[in-house]
Amino acid sequence: MCVCLPQVVLEARHEPGYCAFYEECGRNPTVAGSLLPPIIPCLNYSRARALEGEHYQQLKKVCPMLDRGEGSTTACCSIKQLKSLEMSLMLSKAVLMRCPSCADNFAHLHCINTCSPDQTTTINVTRTMNITTLGIVKEAVVGYQAYLSTSFADKSFESCKNVRIPATGGYAIATMCGRYGSALCTAQRWYDFQGDSSNGLAPLDIDFRLIPEGVTEGIPDGVVPYAGRALGCNEMTPTGAEVCSCQDCQASCPVVPSPPPPAEPFTIGGVDGYLVLCVIFLCVLILNGNNVSERLIEPWEVTCTDKNSLATQEFLGSGFRAWGTLVASHPLKVLLASAVVTAAFATGLMHIELTTDPVQLWSAPNSRARMEKDFHDKHFDPFFRTNQMILTAPGRPGHFYDSLLFGKQNFSGIIAKDLILELLKLQKKIQFWSNDLNRMASLKDVCFAPLNPSNPSLTDCAVNSLPQYFQNSVDNLNAKVNMTELGVTKEVDWRDHFIYCVNSPLSFKDITDLQLSCMADYGAPVFPFLAVGGYESYTTAEALILTFSLNNYPRDNVKFKVALEWEQRFLDIVQEYQKSPGNPFTFAYMAERSLEDEINRTTAEDIPIFMISYAVIFVYIAVALGEYTSFSRILVDSKFLVGLGGILVVGCSVLASMGFYAWIGIPSSLIILQVVPFLVLAVGADNIFIFVLEYQRDARRPGEKREERIGRVLGNVAPSMLLCSLSESVCFFLGALSTMPAVKSFALYAALAVLMDFVLQMTAFVALLSLDARRQDGNRCELACCVSVKTTAPSKPNEGFLLPAMRKYYAPVLLHPVTRVIVVGVPTYFVTTKGFNFTSIAGMNATCSSVGCDPFSLTQKIQYATEYPDLSYMAIPANSWVDDFIDWLNPGSKCCRLYSIGPNKGKFCPATAFLCGQKCMKTPLNGVLRPDKEQFNRFLPDFLGNRPDLQCPKGGLGAYDKVTCVSVLLATRFMAYHTALTTSKEFTAALKIARELAHNITLSMRSIPGTSQDFEVFPYTVTYVFYEQYLTIVSEGLFNISLCLLPTFVVCCLLLGMDLRSGALNLLTIIMITVDTVGVMTLWGIDYNAVALINLVTAVGISVEFVSHMTRSFAMSIQPTHVERAKEATATMGSAVFAGVAMTNLPGIVVLAFAKAQLIQIFFFRLNLVITLLGMAHGLIFLPVLLSYFGPGVNKAVLLRLQQAKAQELELSSNAKNIYDNIGYENQENSPNPHHPVRTPHH
Q1: φ/ψ of residue 1065, rounded to 5
Q2: What is the DSSP letter of 1087?
Q3: Which of 73-87, 205-219, 1155-1169 shows the lowest mean pLDDT across its residues?
Q4: Contact yes or no for 97/893 (Cβ under 8 A)
Q5: Burial class of residue 653 (count of CB atoms within 10 Å of its CB; 0-12, 13-18, 19+)
Q6: In 548-559, which positions are buried (b, 16+ CB within 10 angstroms) versus exposed (e)?
Q7: pLDDT at 1077
Q8: Distance (Å, whole) CA 683 – CA 728
Q9: Is the pLDDT of residue 1222 over 60?
Q10: Element containing residue 1169 per DSSP (H, E)
């Protein structure tokens, strides 16, 4: 029976030496749902009691600051009160004792309130209640005012505000400040929470009054605000405990130098240095001129280079001429042989292996990130699988809520009860029949259950969402209750609980009369950034987030298939729900399998787009290759079958390449299937156009057979085709030296495909052209060979439309003197390997960050890095199993105890058990507790298996249970958090800095005695294996592209007879195309990654087609001036390149703009469009101008050969004329005409 009395200010006087209350009266009947028994004291105005014996020893243990020596110590608390106070302080000490001065200040205050011999001078009882216990009515205190000086309060708060909870990376103060969290906590708010009986921990209400120095107004007579000495966090405690560590106390931190400023940009005279260099180069280019007038060449003027060039061209020309004549003479045999060879290679496709795992695609098996991932997965299991939904409700109106406790709050449309209930329904839907388990499977079969990993139920699964603040309970979400606060009564509901929990997610009980926990049903906190997104304040969030965490398994484990099935079911349900008419949400969602699925899906969905693209290219080639001399001969002059044959040659070369590598066990990938045919088509189409157009523009010589003509034409153009194909093939073979698996396999497949394409063009396509020429010469229609037309072919070669247009208009305009000048113008782990002795005191001090630890320990260095988040990308310091293990062992908490009686005597006893009278370790005098080796190895398994709870929040199960535990630790990990990373640049920078930090830690830890020199600390998070490529991708890209550029120079020089200038200009133009491509990538938002690198390597290959043909044509020209030679090369070869490369690629590329996949749109449509346009601009605009300025001179050996041939022709002509004249003279002598003139013969 209880009777509430009105607020009392009793007759008690406030004077030293008197108590306001004494002894325990029983439970507080006004406090319901308390996490601890709310035992309250009895009102008892009396003198303070002298303490002795056990009573004195208990006070000395719990409140040493009140000890005045046995016989001289008085206090206002009984032994029962001291034991209850000790139990209460244990809960706080569990999180505060890593900073002894903070724990001491915290205990100091509550010891003063409960036990001070001058109790009445610092507190004022305000509410009492009659409690009947065992038939005895007692007056109990249920509320009082506690007066503190602001100096004591502020200093106590300052000593505690930075104390960390290593397991969460957050601050301990966040659990002690209610709705304000750590960010908004102040001394007053901290004390208000401690004195609020609704928090589930305080047994009665305490109104803390913080009074500034010298203020007396409003203070009862006789009351003096307590102004005892509070310890700074960098001070030792009176009992000798060490100062707090740097991680918990900024005042204890050593001076750490600031990072150096970034390097200054390169400038010349205050102007961008690169711009200045470009202007200088432009001026040199403009001033340069190099025209050579026509003149006779003397034999001594011919250089060795000219002779080598002529010899090379004659050798290649004659060889290809003979080969072309041979193939054209036996086309059917050649086609059959080509088909057999291709089929033999292609049969390897039966064994083809496609790589779809992103890790295998982008990370080499021997790369650092891959090896670190394998090490981590071996010792700690693979990183759990993340499946996530982000839900928004655009346009849904919000509302205002006038909260009794929190005032007026604005709630966005998405933070609405009906939507939260809908989300709760959605997250409970996923279950399915599993053939692998032969039963219905659900989340519990595959979920990540950190606190019950061996036999989880659905409520043990780590599901993070807003409904978890209500333990996924509809009843909790619907709960309402009337609550009175400061005389105002209002209804409180789910919104009050939500506001409290997002600000204090670690609370086991809110401060409303709902008395609900904020912890998730699986026993861990749900931090607000895991529940809502897009917010300035949590109530105005724009999105709800639902995250399922699944265990990851090796791919050969049956549970891996079940996890994939669950994720597929998750995706199916989300997609079905998304399409349902009553769906109130807009979705964004992903599963762990989504990336791999997306790679497969985009290929399947975009295959029709690629097919249409190839069809467009085929139609263009078939139409563009035709001659079309008259309407009646359209079917005769068309090249439909030749175009089809060219496409088949490309396809066969790709199939042969893929089959060959499948034979020898080199896996392919979907990127290869998409990119390599495009590349080979660009190369192959160019060669086809050059060959066919040259054949059409050529006239058959008198007495020349068709086969001989084909051989002669092939002899003219095949060296140019060889130059490009060989350059590209060698380029790609060298590109296979890349360490990136995707780039390496692409380079190998592309190299062989280009080589096979050239071989098939020299065989099968020449044979096809021979058959087509035979048909065309017979005036037979292409698709109906038996039908012939009467209209004969014109006698003059057909130049088509493009060549005359380029010759008459484009080349003269481009190479006009004025034009020439214009043209130039997500958490991260720090993993330790074996070889470090954690059981030694030096080993523990080198890793921990609490009291007594090395100020430059592993975890402390990570803490320093978090102070510069913009540079280090570290946001939250590392959690530390070493710190929490030490705190768990501390006898100041209830965590590590031993059974004192019974069958388990001497074994570990959890905090919730009874009969555990023995502590695992004794309290150290200096507050620095360190277990010895035997204790370390004995108790570590108990720590790792201990489930954290209110009585012992330091248990290691869930947070640290994956630490490998053997006599010598094989591997451990310390989890920190990066800042929010969104771009590739940020992910890469974060990896780089984390590695630098880990290396620094490694070096310092190796200096600890007994540490192996191969011991290492490395950072790991699930994204590193993908973003490691970015650390080296610039150097890797330069290396690969340089390797590709090298053969373009070498092959060009060799096939042009050591023509270094042509090779250099050829190389310069290709470099410019590549550099400009990278520049446009930046402007168009195309990330530079491994896919882009593949396309850049491709760009080098396509650039060769645009550039090398033009360079060779210019080098072989015998026009008298550079400008005339450039015009000729642009008109003759430029038209073929434009028709064969640019116009072949562009239609197919444009079709790719309609692809659904971003990968295709960005890296195939955008990038290939950029490459083609830039290649065309440089090859057909810049290169002719560059050659007109700096191109090599006319090959004097060729000119000399022509002059000698012309002289011989003149001499033969003269000799013939002499013979004619002599005959005429003889006839004259016999003639009757004496007046006929006499002619002198020429000598």
Answers
A1: -70, -40
A2: -
A3: 1155-1169
A4: yes
A5: buried
A6: bbbbbbeeeeeb
A7: 84
A8: 9
A9: no
A10: helix 1167-1177
**pLDDT reported for residue 784:** 65
Angstrom distance (rounded) from CA 1110 to CA 1183: 8
pLDDT tens per residue across span 257-287: 777 776 777 777 777 777 777 777 667 655 6
**Lowest-confidence segment of 213-227, 313-327, 699-713, 738-752 by average pLDDT:** 738-752
Q: Reduced to 3 states, what is the DSSP secondary structure of residue 674? A: helix
Amino acid symbol at 1095: N
Q: What is the DSSP string of 373-385?
A: HHHHHHHH-SPPE
Question: At a CB cut-off of 8 Å and minimum separation 6, what does 110 contact?
Answer: 85, 88, 89
Strand partners, 312: none
Helix, strand, or coil (residue 64): helix
Q: Which two tokens stand for residue 1188?
A: 């007109």
State the alpha helices, DSSP H only, in 330-405.
331-346, 358-362, 368-380
User: What is the longest distance spanned by two Cα atoms in the chain?
Assistant: 176
Per-residue tokens: 1194: 């006319």
Q: What token pair was written down for 74?
A: 């008085």
Which conformational region is residue 947 in: left (phi greater than 0), alpha (psi within -120 to 50 degrees), or beta?
Answer: beta
Sequence-ordered list of residues with C-beta below 8 angstroms from that of 182, at least 6 positions apart, any chain: 161, 170, 171, 173, 174
From CA 1036, how far away is CA 1031, in angstroms rounded? 9
What radius of gyration do the chain's Cα atoms show? 44
* Length of the chain measured in residues: 1243
Q: Which two tokens stand for residue 639?
A: 């090249």
Q: How far apart are CA 743 and CA 746, in angstroms?
A: 5
Please name the helix (run of DSSP H) or strand (run of DSSP E) that holds residue 919, with its range, or none.
strand 918-919
Token pair of 891 as six digits: 């006898």
The predicted structure's pLDDT at residue 109? 93
Q: What CA–CA distance (Å, rounded) separates 524 from 530?
A: 12
Which H or E run contains 439?
strand 439-442
Rounded Cα–Cα distance for residues 1175 and 1104 (Å): 9
CA dist., res. 745 & res. 664, Å (int): 13
DSSP 3-state of 263: coil
Q: Rounded distance, CA 758 to CA 721, Å?
A: 8
Residue 213 CB coordination number (10 Å): 9
pLDDT of residue 1241: 36
Q: Which residue type is seen at 1224?
A: G
Helix axes 1167-1177, 1090-1116, angle to 10 degrees: 20
The answer to whether the CB of 244 falls within 8 A of the CB of 849 is: no
CA 581 to chain CA mean position, Å: 36
DSSP structural state of residue 254: P
Q: What are the start-end ranges of the E strands in 95-159?
A: 123-133, 136-149
4 Cβ contact partners less than 8 Å away, ≥ 6 residues apart: 30, 129, 130
Residue 119 · residue 20 · CB < 8 Å: yes
Half-sphere exposure of 1138 (CA within 13 A, CB side): 17
